[in-house]
Amino acid sequence: MNFSYTSVQDAVYFCYESINNSCYKETRPIVSIATRAPMYILLLVTVAVTVCGNLLVIISISHFKQLHTPTNYLTLSLAVVDFLLGGFIMPPSMIRTIETCWYFGELFCKIHTSTDVMLSTASILHLSFISVDRYYAVCHPLNYQTKITVFVTLNMILVSWILSAMVGFGMIFLGLNIKGIEDFYYKNLNCVGSCTLIQSEASSMVSSLLSFYIPGLVMIGIYVKIFKVAKRQARSIRDLSEQRATATDNKNMASSKRERKAAKTLATVMGVFLVCWLPFFVCNIIDPILAFSTPPSLVDALVWFGYLNSTFNPLVYGFFYSWFRKALKIIAYGKIFQNNSSRTRLFIE
């Protein structure tokens, strides 16, 4: 390990010994020689679970024709977001967290940070559109198929990706994140071997509102409305079941129950997202006000807690969706390669 001594007792480590403007290599108590290997194993397992879990969601929805619905197209695109975060964002972040230095260059740092912001923004935009989809499915079932078509869903997906890319890459590559604090940033925070998102008070407030708080509050409002309607529907179904119901009534009741269950499952996905990312976005607003005094180890911990949202989503699907569990069995046993496997009925419509 490269180092230079400031005294006989103390040693100062640098990310790049041969570069004058090198960052100091932090010495964190939790990242010692004894704990480095276990941390790598733990984070590698997290990366593997994230990538494999979301890949299974992507394969399931893409392969089985019964799953080709507007809601599942949004879920598929959300799984792609989580897959990219697990495969592209998490591995370099893992090395940065454990080694406390960035060894992949300034350009890749900008690309990595921009993509990170883009994917986290895309996640909540997807969830916002999913809440709109569930609102029409539960609250206006008669208009659902005319309002939420495949064309409308694809436009939702495009808007989510395009707006997220504009926020992520526009903010970083145009330097909007440090606008107003350029002198402070280049004098105190800019050094070779660092790759941390630094934002001014205005930038952190605007980006947090657009990427998290406003969409989050909108989603909460929509799901509160959904559950009120769902509760009223459940009461009507219970009253109808006590009477003599026709075959059409039974089919409508089954469809209504399925839509409400889907709404509850996707609300759980939304709740997991809000819980995982809320601590980071609170810190993101407070840190500039505190002159960026938040310990880097705490920031890293909050970022990884947010990343875990992409790990949890496939687990939520597996817990709530019987069709996903059935799809996993078909994939695990290799039956997905059989003729007409894509037409397998995963649930009764």
Automatic annotation (TrEMBL):
SUPFAM superfamilies named in the record = Family A G protein-coupled receptor-like
GO terms for MF: trace-amine receptor activity
Q: What is its main location?
A: membrane
PROSITE patterns in the cross-refs? G_PROTEIN_RECEP_F1_1, G_PROTEIN_RECEP_F1_2
Where the record annotates domain G-protein coupled receptors family 1 profile, the positions are 53-317
> Which SMART domains does the annotation name?
7TM_GPCR_Srsx
Query: What name does UniProt use for this protein?
Result: Trace amine-associated receptor 1-like
Q: Which organism is it from?
A: Erpetoichthys calabaricus (Rope fish)
Q: Which gene encodes it?
A: LOC114647567
